[in-house]
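Allow me, if you will, to draw on your knowledge of protein folds for a short while. I have a record of one protein: its chain in single-letter code and its fold written as discrete structure tokens. I should value your view on which stretches of the chain appear to form regular backbone elements. Thank you for your consideration; the sequence and its tokens are set out here:
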Amino acid sequence: MHLLINIDVPDLPAAEALYTQAFDLIAARRFGDGGVELLGAQAPIYLLQNPSGSMAAADRPRDYTRHWTPVHLDVVVDSLEPALDRALQAGLVQETDIREANWGRIVRLADPWGHGWCLLQFVNRGYDEIAT
């Protein structure tokens, strides 16, 4: 399977600036004024400009306020605090304190368009600490 990540945003230049700064991604291909491909993760991330209120899924309009979805993105980092500082400086908002677990450390964030993100720092054997 080849995975592509698509993220709707209402302001493409602002989103490109935020994600490239926060996660050290680089802009690659551009799709007119409506999209940009970001590289540097295990899967390419496509930022797609779609205005608030436009049709999203079925009969639901896009809403860029903070929302919950069962899908979110985790970014694995070597050191949590510097990655968190970088993400906050780029414009993400910290939603939780850093939480410690036997597999590692995690902090939850949100971008200005309502999408949830987590930063993870694995310790010891990572998820193998809890796998059966």
Summary: The radius of gyration is 16 Å. The longest strand covers residues 104-110. The chain has two helices and eleven strands.
